[in-house]
Predict the 3D structure of the following.
Amino acid sequence: MAMKHYPSEFKAEAVALYRSRPGATIKSLAADLGVNHETLRSWIRKDERRAGAPTGAGARQAVVPSPASPEGENAALRKRVRDLEEERDILRKAAKYFAGETRW
């Protein structure tokens, strides 16, 4: 089986997507992106070593509790929208990448 080579931008966005989704597993995210779960795991580990961050589930971003004020809630919702838009863009790029790869 031939090894696939992924662009570094795709790898970085996949790692960022993993970090932004605290409930997601590496296996489920890898399936969504169409990559092997061990490949995604190695990208995450490599990024953690590069950044000097702790490894494992503790490396994910903490979930911020719901703020009490309407302004705080609006800010949290805006952040959530940005995160979801980033995830959507990553998945669009992944779909575009794999659609181009299947063309003869």
In short: The chain has a mean pLDDT of 81. The radius of gyration is 16 Å.
